TrEMBL record:
Pfam families: FGGY_C, FGGY_N. One of its GO terms (biological process) is xylulose metabolic process. Its EC number is 2.7.1.17. This is Xylulose kinase. It comes from the Eukaryota. It is an enzyme of class 2 (transferase). PANTHER family: SUGAR KINASE (PTHR10196), XYLULOSE KINASE (PTHR10196:SF57). GO terms for molecular function: ATP binding; D-xylulokinase activity.
Length: 490
């Protein structure tokens, strides 16, 4: 069924490293429009590779900010040509790649306020922008002196729509190492260690659900937005993804890709030296955490090639034919330098905790999958995660199409596993957040707002003995991981 012609729409944007994407949903949460601009292909004049410039030191990576502005011009023109009626958009929000910063030169806020709707944004905003605060202060002092405001990529994009500087939101701000996530304010100690007068340059952070104000008159006159269209705080790509996956308290999302990423909804975080803890983007008093594991699908594929004749069917059969707990054998497969924990090397242990040089092919297959998921659970629990009644594991990414791998995931976490399609979760999350921002003030919860979205699909439930088997195995895993770490550092 098509939306009624004047029914309200909600716009979500995502400014990632390689592209700018937009999704438009209606009040029933149906996607009614999608568009995108690929930087390398559609803006070749900026000469980026993968959306970035890699500097001669091979370490510094920057993106031309003007390219993002020009991409927004292109994107909105595309959407207009496709017949999208911008006057129906009630609210918009967005997300930006995390850990990037944009420096606005003195006088920029005046420029933003008085943009001429007859010109392209990128012609109006020929601005110097710099990255990474402390570094800029040391290497380009005079440019730092001339800085009026510092934005994150997310709040930079929001500023364009607002026609003025947009506040940094709590959730993306948490990724800067400058925000105290408990008081939700800048930490004085961290600010002083970074640069003088930094609080004035950053502005006060705001809740991620805040309505920052109406869209600027530039967009009203140039694209036909309504004057009452609200700009809801933009946030980081990972927090937006959490919104797009519609995580709930107690849930954990596991993205099984080249590297594996674990998203957690936390009530009481225990920040550690590993992982990242952020303020939750959809529930002001709660938290979220992110853990990255470098050894993901490539490791599973190598074991498949060596132990299962390069066939996923045989790999799956090996998982079916071996028991939960794998006869007590435990494996660590860190083929490239792992992040969590920082170790490299492959280590296998038998049921007596003795290191062995090999396992039989079928046992090896189960060892790699169980070992990876025990590691995901262990490090999640260290950050304050605990399995509660109603906990769901949401699986996404390449390996989430393999039923047997997901069965092991369900058993190790002792929770049901659901699969979700994540191709546009950041963009969709931004559209959901736009809709939620309008009603958040009146106390409506995010979970209520997104009730109508399609439900994830249940694919595995834990074996009755799973809890007993893996609680025991996890205790051994903890001690063996410590041994592996010590061994690699000795």
């Amino acid at each position: 069924m098509a939306s009624a012609p004047r029914a309200p729409l909600y716009l979500g944007l995502d400014l990632s490293t390689q592209q700018l994407k937009a999704v438009v949903i209606d009040g029933e949460l149906r996607v009614v429009h999608q568009s995108g601009v690929q930087f390398d292909a559609e803006l070749p004049e900026f000469r980026t590779q993968g959306g970035v410039h890699i500097h001669t030191d091979r370490l510094t990576v920057t993106s031309p900010v003007l390219m993002w502005v020009k991409a927004l011009d292109l994107l909105l023109d595309k959407m207009k040509r496709a017949g999208l009626d911008f006057s129906r958009v009630r609210a918009l929000s967005g997300s930006g790649q995390q850990h990037g910063s944009v420096f606005w030169r003195r006088g920029a806020s005046e420029t933003l306020k008085h943009l001429d709707p007859d010109q392209d944004l990128h012609q109006l905003l020929q601005r110097f922008t710099g990255n990474q605060i402390a570094k800029l202060r040391q290497t380009r002092a005079e440019e730092f002196q001339d800085t009026e405001r510092i934005s994150l990529v997310s709040s930079f994009a929001a500023s364009l729509f607002l026609g003025g500087y947009a506040a940094i939101d709590y959730s993306d701000g948490s990724g800067m190492n400058l925000l105290d996530i408990r008081t939700r304010n800048w930490s004085e100690i961290c600010l002083q260690a970074t640069a003088p007068h930094l609080d004035q340059l950053l502005g006060a952070p705001l809740p991620s659900t805040s309505v920052l104000g109406p869209v600027s008159s530039y967009f009203v006159h140039r694209y036909g937005f309504s004057e009452s269209c609200s700009v809801v705080a933009f946030t980081g790509d990972n927090p937006a993804s959490l919104a797009g996956m519609r995580l709930q308290p107690g849930d954990v999302a596991v993205s099984l890709g080249t590297s594996d990423t674990v998203f957690l909804w936390l009530q009481q975080p225990r920040p550690a030296l590993e992982g990242h803890v952020f303020c939750n983007p959809v529930e002001q008093q709660e938290y979220m955490a992110l853990l990255c594991f470098k050894n993901g699908s490539l490791t599973r594929e190598r074991v498949r090639n060596e132990c299962a004749g390069a066939s996923w069917e045989l790999f799956s059969a090996a998982l079916r034919d071996t028991p939960l707990g794998n006869h007590g054998n435990i494996g660590f497969y860190f083929e490239t330098m792992e992040i969590t924990p920082p170790v490299i090397g492959v280590h296998r242990f038998d049921s007596a905790d003795c290191e062995v040089s090999s396992l039989s092919p079928q046992v090896e297959v189960r060892a790699v999958v169980e070992g990876q998921f025990l590691s995901r659970r262990l490090h999640a629990e260290r950050l304050g995660y605990s399995i509660i009644p109603g906990t769901r594991v949401l699986a996404t990414g390449g390996a989430s199409s393999n039923k047997e791998i997901l069965q092991v995931l369900s058993d190790v976490f002792n929770a049901p596993v659901y699969t979700i399609d994540l191709s546009d979760s950041t963009c969709l999350g931004s559209a959901y957040r736009a809709l939620h921002g309008l009603v958040a003030e009146s106390g409506a919860s995010f979970v209520d707002v997104v009730k109508k979205a399609p439900e994830p699909r249940l694919v595995a439930t834990p074996h009755p003995k799973a809890k007993e088997v893996y609680d025991e195995l996890l205790k051994r895993y903890v001690q063996l991981e410590e041994r592996v770490v010590q061994k690699s550092h000795s």
